[in-house]
Amino acid sequence: MRNFKLTLEYDGTDFHGWQRQPGLRTVQGTIEGALEEIVGRNVPVDGGGRTDAGVHAFGQVASVKAETRLETEEFHRALSANLPEDINVYDVEEAAAKFHARFSATSRRYVYYLRTETTAIWRRFAHVVTHPLDIARMQAAAGALVGQHDFSSFTPNRSIDTHPVCDVMEATVEDVDEVISVTLVANHFLHHMARVIVGTLIDVGRGKIAVEQIKAILSKKDRTAAGPTTPPNGLFLMEVRYDD
After folding, report:
1. Domain 107-241: which topology?
2. I need a labelling partner for 127 at 20 to 30 A (CA). Which of 3, 120, 146, 196 fits?
3. CA–CA gap between residue 230 and residue 180 (Å, rounded)
């Protein structure tokens, strides 16, 4: 039995998220189907981040334990040959037996892209905001999110297997050539947390929420206190980080 670490990218537009769901096209399910063609049996795949339907990834990591005589490069080629065009595994390496894509991770980095003009080309990969936004206010509000906080106000449903306290190590807002990017790095993310944070920052940029309200929103631990959930198309899982 060998443990493989896969690093991959995917266009999440036509997937119902990462996690396998009966009768639905998911990234995890598609990769598991491709692996079954190679090793001849069902092989569970674990992901470093559970992206929602419509969310993309440039740096998703997955781990899979499989019995195969194929060399790592041969295994990589065989897997790539059995995957659709909207998933690309660009690196495969053999990992230590204890490595787990999700539980070994120390942090995840997400970037959400906003465009300030309507676009036909980038509509699948960025959320369009036509209202004027105060980037300085958004950056100040993002800074208030850094640190260990209970993010219950930023998730629609509390999962019993996910602690609501997250350590946000980075939260920045940049505006370059009509593209606004919101970068978030945390040890873990709650369901929809990144998208609710972005929706809240947009409301700050529009003047609907004051910068000073961010701490009060966190302390309320109430989803109705924060801003709206932005669409999934602008969100990318950029990197899953590990100690080694």
Report:
1. Alpha-Beta Plaits (3.30.70)
2. 146
3. 14
